[in-house]
């Protein structure tokens, strides 16, 4: 083969891999030199609920409704609970119906922080549960359904700088659940226990908030790593238009 052609071919191949992946055109762009970059991000992110619902492959985001979490076991120890819950197929609905309420975008520091609300998250899960609720033994196995009142989360993502260090991207997430309606089928004393759970729903919601923060963190981390490997933060938020 002609050397010149070879060089051109190699050059194109190299270029294709170096050139940043293209963001879909429906994603609004926010630029670092925009004084209102935070507001820009909030309105951009909040315009994408339906796209997030069906997935955004270019961002490494899989379809989000429903979202099935990995199996996990939760221990709840508090003044009113002493519970061990083994869960399978923790399935969330309406995760895509988020609203960002504040944001602080700092591409140069590789940091993003802010607050996001989930107004109407629902979930169902196969569970095995044993322990005590307000000193009463509680136990059983079956399907549990949840309807959450507003869940408010504060987040901080840090160390989002370059592809090589994406494994060390930092994520802090603290969520507060205001209230939750619960329905456990398969509990012993099912009716009474459900009524009791429901009566203490606000307490239960606040007790389980840290556990849910950890679940959400486990869901978000792999996505953030994938996103970071595709785009350094400074590429998602280019310096100027
Ligand atoms: C959860 O606990 C059950 C019962 O103790 C165990 O069989 C299962 O492997 C645990 N699952 C996880 C994900 O830790
Ligand atoms: C829990 O309470 C809500 C209203 O507060 C009610 O709609 C729901 O049916 C109750 N669920 C159970 C399992 O008792
Ligand atoms: C709880 O769920 C079961 C099964 O889905 C349903 O038959 C029952 O009516 C529900 N109870 C309440 C109070 O919502």
TrEMBL record:
Keyword Signal among UniProt keywords: yes
InterPro entries: Haemolymph_juvenile_hormone-bd (IPR010562), To_sf (IPR038606)
Annotated Pfam families: JHBP
Signal sequence region: 1-20
Gene3D superfamilies with a match to the protein in the record: Haemolymph juvenile hormone binding protein
Example of a GO cellular component annotation carried by this entry: extracellular space
Annotated keywords: Signal
Domain of life, per lineage: Eukaryota
Record bears the keyword Signal: yes
PANTHER family in the cross-refs: CIRCADIAN CLOCK-CONTROLLED PROTEIN DAYWAKE-RELATED, PROTEIN TAKEOUT-LIKE PROTEIN
Protein name from the UniProt record: Haemolymph juvenile hormone binding protein
